[in-house]
From TrEMBL:
Domain annotation APO: ranges: 68-153, 210-295
Protein name: APO domain-containing protein
Pfam families attached to this UniProt entry: APO_RNA-bind
Ranges in a coiled coil: none
Protein source organism: Rhamnella rubrinervis
PROSITE patterns: APO (PS51499)
GO terms of molecular function: RNA binding
Entry-linked InterPro entries: APO_dom
Length: 314
């Protein structure tokens, strides 16, 4: 046996191949305890809240215009796009340019995060040549499936992201009353918060990984070995991911956007952008429909702060 397959601890030698087999055996035995029965109701609730969020956002997009930048992920909710020069351009080749706005849709508000669908939680690590064998499904649905829920085909392959009525075109749509809009917004915001809280509970029990150099996510005890990382300029990495523990924002991205307060100008200007505030995009859309922001977002919004430097007369 070669020297590389041995490791010295104090005065003892450890066979690394034998140690690896012991670890794999322990993981296989642990898989018998999954899915945990107590987490199945949580997984089912997460799926239900996910549907409510998608339905609510789709309904609000028909009433309020949402603009998405043609060349970067920036999104803005309002009658007009903003003039803040934060566009990084296509492939980030330029910086600090003006956004080019187009009508946004559901995918711009609820960012789709897709991962490999596993037949069972503790299977062998996916190799690079197997990357086309496994289907790609929404990350939250895969997490709920591993937690014991029974997602439908619409959950695994949502068609709502591609249908025409989910786009942000408000022309020709019958307007809703303020009371109806407020009801939809409050229900959507409540479902959004419960959806994220449910995902947080599942992540405390079921392992998930995220690459620290890109947005790739994997639900399972190990990350996959498909070389899909976007940091290709480092030849030694060869596109391999560097996995770390995933958080809720990795599976359910909040997408922070600019928030226009009553004291701000109709079109946010670039020279005063340090004084403008932000909100998560779903919260921003619900606020436009009359919902009340939860207290935890007040620090981000700073409703009472200034919109530009105060001129003091001497």
């Amino acid at each position: 046996m070669s020297y590389n397959s041995w490791m010295f601890y104090s005065s003892k030698m450890v066979d690394l191949k034998l140690l690896r087999l012991m670890i794999q055996k322990r993981i296989e035995n642990r898989a018998k305890d999954y899915p945990i029965k107590g987490m199945r109701p949580v997984a089912r609730e997460v799926l239900n809240y996910r549907k409510l969020v998608m339905e609510g956002v789709s309904a609000l997009l028909k009433q309020f215009p949402v603009f998405a930048c043609k060349f970067c992920p920036e999104v803005y909710v309002g009658d007009k796009g903003l003039s803040i020069q934060t566009c990084c351009g296509y492939r980030r080749r330029v910086k600090n340019r003006v956004h080019e706005w187009v009508i946004g849709g559901l995918d711009d508000v609820l960012v789709p995060v897709e991962i490999f669908h596993l037949q069972h939680m503790h299977r062998d690590v996916i190799k690079h040549h197997q990357r086309f064998v496994f289907e790609r499904v929404p990350a939250v649905v895969e997490l709920c499936w591993q937690a014991g829920a029974d997602p439908s085909a619409k959950d695994f392959y949502p068609s709502a992201h591609n249908v025409e009525d989910s786009c942000g075109d408000v022309n020709g749509v019958e307007p809703l009353s303020p009371g109806e809009l407020r009801s939809i917004a409050n229900g959507t915001l409540r479902a959004w918060e419960k959806h994220r809280n449910g995902v947080q509970k599942l992540l405390l029990v079921y392992p998930a990984k995220v690459c620290k150099h890109c947005s790739e996510v994997h639900v399972g005890p190990f990350g996959h070995m498909a070389r899909l990382c976007g940091v290709f300029k480092y030849d030694s990495w060869r596109g391999a991911h560097f996995w770390e523990k995933a958080e809720v924002d990795d599976l359910v991205p909040p997408k922070i956007v600019w928030w226009r307060r009553p004291q701000d100008p109709i079109v946010l200007l670039n020279e005063w952008r340090d004084f403008y505030r932000h909100t998560p995009l779903v919260v921003n859309l619900c606020l436009h429909a009359g919902a009340i922001a939860p207290a935890k977002y007040h620090c981000m919004m700073k409703v009472q702060s200034f919109t530009r430097p105060v001129e003091v007369k001497v």
